[in-house]
Amino acid sequence: MNLMKKLRAFFVAAGWLAVFASGPSLLGQPPAGPAAVAQTGTATNPKLSGTVKDPTGSVMIGVDVALLQGTNVVKAGKTDSEGLFSFNIPVGQYQLVVTTPDFKTHVQALRVVANMPSLAITLSLEGITSVVEVTADSRTQLLIDASQSLDATVLTQDQINDLPDDQDALLEYLQMLAGGAGNAQLIIDGFEGGRLPTRDQIAQIIIEPNSFNANGTGPRITVVSRVPGGTRWDGNASFNYRDAALNARNPGAANKPPMHQSVVSVREGGPVIKGKLTLSINASKEQSESGNGSIRAVTPDGPVNTGFVSPSTYDSIGFSSQWYKSKTNSLNFNLNFNRNKNLNSGIGGFTLMERASDSFSHGFNFQIADNKTISSKMTNTFQFRMNRNSNRTQPRTIAVAINVIDAFNRGGAQNHSESHSANYGLNETLRWTPNAKWNLQFSLIANYQRNSNLSENNYLGTFTFSSLADYLADHPVTFTQTSGNPLAMTEQFDANTSFQVTYRIKSTMSFSAGAQYGLQTHFNDYNNVSPTMQFQAQVKKRTIISWGARLTYPTVPFSLGYYEQLIRGDGTTRQFNTVISNPSYPDPFVDGVNGVTTGSGGSLQRKDKNLTSPYSINSQISLTETLPHNWRFTTNFNFTRQVHSIRNRNVNAPFPGIPLDPSLTRDEIDMLRPFFPLVSRINQFESTGNSLQKTFNFTVQLPSTKKFMKTQFSGQVQYGLTWSADDNSVQNPYNIRADWARNDQRQRVQGTLSVRPPWIGSFSFNGNANSGRAYSITTGKDDNFDQSINDRPAGVPRNSLRGPGAWTLNLNYSSPNLSLHRKKPEPKAAATSAGVAAVPASTANPQIDALVQSALAAGIPMASIQQLITTASANPALLASITGTGTGTATPAQKPPSLMHPRVYITVNVQNLLNHTRVNGYSGVITSPLFGKPTGFGAGRSIYFTINEQF
Asked: Is 704 domain-assigned?
């Protein structure tokens, strides 16, 4: 399909967008009236406006909003009937303070510039940190990402505290929130990919089910790490522990091996030069003897059902720093060192203990980001990233490998390897807001990778048997062996550029469009333009509708791993694989087949000369509705078609690719190969894969203000219905479409319920359930001699069976703060008619200034701060009691006052709370002794204890 046909298909999927963009009257009228707190000002003063909402997304009326400079309140007011506020104020640096009874006070530093987009602030109940929807690179000044979806989900700090401690479980849960497909783009502090920060180091998580941003591929998870504040040093320490004595035995295992895990992490950060330079140090050490794995195999000596322990360690130390070069320019630095060791790994399921191996790795990464406010209408972010990693894997047993399909795998792991990699990346993003209606964004990303990989995988060879009977009879179905030069040196450069424009048709309606173009080395397809567009409208006070469509090419269609595989298997001076069907045993070369020196019967790798980039066409419509009593639901329908997926096909299999007459001799079979007399397996990278997916999601969110007997309840439940089909697994290499089949987990349900009774802490229940995944019945033999053991009985389609469904329930408990230093009750003060009393100047008293900053950081309401300053100014003895001096004037040696105290809390995380048995899958191999039986189980109940201290 040429470029014009691709663009035509895209615009057919997106055509209805133009109808809605051209007919805004169909969508109703915008909310009436300006903000009740609109302030008069000169024409030269820019306008700062925003909306305040509660955690359910409902607007909040009559909320106090104030702008401070130092200890002076510059402007103050209340939100109107639509939750809006607005001020006309001079350009400059301010502190925005939002406060209302029963909700946590929100304090945010920001720089006001001309044509600032409207702010979106979400308050949460007392004890829950408020959230401002900001971009990941805006931690020095507040910037709203105009391309962010209106239906994005921003997790509050309290919701983050309820997330799993385990990083793998955390990532899996976030992927489920993003749509359940597990393919969401992960952005950590402005960079794609990487290791998730620990839960206590996360400041904010933004989940966009489908952002339709030109610089992206669909669902997006943005994680913003904490950075040190500019006024005081603080930090936290945590200790996580688990032990086999607290856990249940894994289902399917006859024993419960001893195991334990401990994780210690420490963070300390604060100003090095106040107002100029901050520094944060993070260190963690994890020691684990994981006992979650188990072996479920059947050997000639009988069944093997046993658990085992895989010791591992992970150590890291990192440094983060911010340098405020000026009011309009800052630099962020991140440097991290890590090392990892995993012992007794690579086993479990059918793989026995003797196939274990050990792996070791170490590396570092460095990141720097320059954030520059060029003018009141333009900002620029430049980022540079460098990663260096070394990895080594060593098998514990040196021996030929023996695999009996769906029965057992024994012998040597044969996975000795050593690799050294270096990755360098540049990211340039320019944002321009010429006026309040337009926002334009330009991005350029460039990456360079260099790998040195010594791999001796399968150098001794592997025998594969169809059944235990064939193993006892010394009759393998195939023998494979890798030989040649184990060292491969590869490098790759890729780059992409994107442009995104958002037009705010009116305050409740926006239209965005953009495109991305990418290229890379080792791939000669240069016409890959990815257009995207989205239309969003707030059609009523509580209703948001969104339409979007895109045609997407991957940023790296032909990965460096593909290229390494290509050059290793070129059949010349590098590696090649010898594949022998029905070999003799234990010497496969007894009949004279000498694949080691000549490559006869070997396997070659090549690339189709017509290889093109895969692409997908995606469209989505979604509706977000806030119901009475602050209930909220979101529903969306997503359609995705993927075309030209890259697959690796054997193009020299015997024609016509179906089971052959068993009376044929080996020579007669080889004559059916298209490249005869070459009888090697020829694997070819081709753009011939296809898939189709339709997804429906429905989410209901419980209002966080819901209370019963002084107990607060919040949560959400999501139902997903997915239909997908593909031709990813092919039995007949000459009839790919014949294996088009359903391949999905049709239904899934996930939900969270947080219960916060008074005084005793909070309980968060996280449950999920899903229907089973499809799998195929196979004969366990190579009936068509294509040297792939995936043949099915005659007349049996692919994925004709359905595996079992599964469900689990997890619990996370967080205790209340266990601080021994309690803050005194906040003094009461009457508010002025403007909503917040004006705070007088501090009369240049550094003690009062420090006291105000400490009070703001502690989250004390503005009315109380006003009373505190008034009292402290009139009563120097109060300052003396705080600082230990007899005067109200501080000296450099005196400790500044602080209202912050160390806080200690305990969390308990229970995975699989009810110890429900979860079957991971069934065997579909007819020759297996486990045919029709479970092949693996999910872990039993596991308990984690964590002690956290913030200081």
From this structure: no
